[in-house]
Design goal:
- The complex is a heterodimer of chains A (244) and B (233).
- Chain A is α/β, with parallel strands linked by helices and 244 residues long.
- Helices cover 38% and strands 25% of the residues of chain A.
- In chain A, β7, α6 and β8 form a beta-alpha-beta unit.
- Chain A is globular.
- Chain B is mainly alpha-helical.
- Chain B has a single domain, classed as MetI-like fold, CATH 1.10.3720.
- Chain B has eight helices and no strands.
- Chain B is elongated.
- Classes of the chains: A alpha/beta (244), B mainly alpha (233).
- The interface between A and B is medium-sized, with 27 and 21 residues.
Chain lengths: 244, 233
């Protein structure tokens, strides 16, 4: 489903991604962990081209984009549709109601009729447990509810891959559970997911595999049990020990 | 003694009242026929110009930035009255004759465009980067993002400073009197030149400007409340 080859990203003199190679199969749930500044969020953002990689290539669902040459805008638009992102700070549109937030993508970008977009948005909001909040504005919702709207907005784009950028780290502890539950349900439906998180419980329970990143490189990739019980690399051990 | 002039004289008071009353209609006519249309037309044109200028300033295309910077600098760096004189008398003297009203429209629009562009630029920049990213993520183009996500939010932020600009503009239109537009202040000048009651006429016209601006600030309050419905208080 996803194949990343020799991906580099540089901000000025700072090299954030130093050659990432990664294959992810259809339906897999991959959790990316690592210390801050390790490049995990940048890697995720590159998959949606919110950050344009400096070189290397990414293939999602059969479409390959090679960033070693300048990439045409049309190609970026098409490539971006393969994935959808859930942001750490939700980034909902504050001037639109919950329903409008979810309808916006399908209606404006995919040119689906308003009636159809509405039907679909209602379905998705019911699915994330917000069937009674259609006409609320984001500021009237709790953080957990806002993030679930964020998930519904991403799902409305019908992406091949769902990208989660620390989806629970801006939330109050008691609101984390409801968001993780929605993500768990999605994982159960066989959606391909890449989740950058500090939520080790989620990594343990839901992820098929965990990737540990440090200083712009993938250090280790293994099944959750192996990662948590006997990590192969010294740096992984140190990082996991810090979390205890 | 000079204070004898202030002693109460019923005849004089009656004369003041008559003048104030008889001048009210011509003054209001000046407001309705020239001051208000000039303000409204100018504000709409100026705001359009301001949005374009703000977008040019934040664009990544260097020449566009330069043009916008030059324009804002030139307009903000020179007096409005001088700009109006150049447009009307200056251009007129070399054969480019523009009628007083259109000349005023051009002058004031250019002025509003320059000042308001800074307000709009600041408002656009105040919208969090996450909003651009979310719009990008759902697949919006640059212009879709501006139209549907950024400008609606920037509008809310810019209502108070733009109201300032608008109210300032109402009063600035009095400068159009200097290029022969018979707006409210010029009417006052003409009437005063006829009956010499300078203090009375200019006070009267000042109060009329004040009333107009007061009404506008009420409109501002309503607009602010309307746009505040999606932010928490």
């Amino acid at each position: 489903m996803i194949s990343i080859n020799g991906l580099h990203k540089q901000f000025g003199n700072l090299e954030v991604l130093k050659g990432i190679d990664l294959q992810i199969n259809k339906g897999q749930v991959i959790t990316v962990i690592g210390p801050s500044g390790s490049g995990k969020t940048t890697l995720l953002r590159c998959m949606n081209i919110l950050e344009v990689p400096t070189s290397g290539s990414i293939t999602i669902d059969g479409q390959t984009t090679d960033f070693s040459n300048t990439v045409h805008k049309k190609e970026i638009d098409l490539f971006r549709r393969k994935s959808a992102m859930v942001f750490q700070h939700y980034n909902l549109f504050p001037h639109m109601t919950v329903l409008q937030n979810v309808m916006e993508g399908p209606m404006i970008v995919k040119k689906i009729s308003k009636v159809e977009a509405r039907k679909k948005a209602e379905q998705l909001l019911n699915k994330v447990g917000l069937g009674d909040k259609f006409d609320f504005y984001p500021h009237q919702l709790s953080g957990g509810q806002q993030q679930r709207v964020g998930i519904a907005r991403a799902l409305a784009l019908e992406p091949k891959v769902m990208l989660f950028d620390e989806p629970t780290s801006a939330l109050d502890p008691e609101l984390v559970g409801e968001v993780l539950q929605v993500m768990k349900d999605l994982a159960g439906e066989g959606i391909t997911m890449v989740v950058v998180t500090h939520e080790m419980r989620f990594a343990k329970d839901v992820a098929d595999e965990i990737i540990f990143m440090d200083q712009g490189k993938i250090i280790e990739r293994s099944k959750p049990i192996d990662m948590f019980t006997h990590p192969k690399e010294e740096r992984t051990k140190q990082f996991l020990n810090l979390l205890q | 003694m000079f204070w004898n002039n202030f002693s109460y004289d019923p005849d004089k008071m009656q004369r003041y009242l008559d003048i104030a009353q008889s001048s009210l209609l011509p003054l209001l006519e000046g407001a309705v026929v020239y001051t208000l249309p000039l303000t409204l037309i100018t504000f709409v044109l100026g705001l359009t110009l301001a949005i374009l200028t703000a977008l040019a300033r934040i664009s990544t295309i260097k020449p566009l930035q330069w043009i916008a910077r030059f324009y804002v600098s030139a307009i903000r760096g020179t007096p409005l009255l001088v700009q109006l004189f150049i447009l009307f008398y200056g251009l007129g003297s070399v054969g480019i004759v523009i009628d007083p009203f259109p000349a005023a429209v051009i002058g004031f629009s250019l002025n509003v465009g320059a000042y308001a562009s800074e307000v709009i630029r600041a408002a656009i920049l105040s919208i969090p980067k996450g909003q651009w990213e979310a719009a990008q993520m759902i697949g919006m183009s640059y212009s879709q993002t501006l139209r549907r996500v950024i400008l609606p939010q920037a509008t809310r932020v810019s209502i108070p400073p733009l109201s300032n600009t608008f109210i300032g503009l109402v009063k600035d239109t009095s400068l159009a009197s200097a290029i022969l537009v018979t707006e409210m202040f010029r009417r006052a000048q003409e009437i005063a030149a006829f009956n010499y009651e300078v203090l009375l006429l200019y006070t009267e016209v000042a109060i009329l400007y004040w009333i107009i601006c007061f009404l506008l600030s009420l409109v501002q309050g309503r607009l602010e409340r309307r746009f505040d419905r999606y932010v928490s208080r």
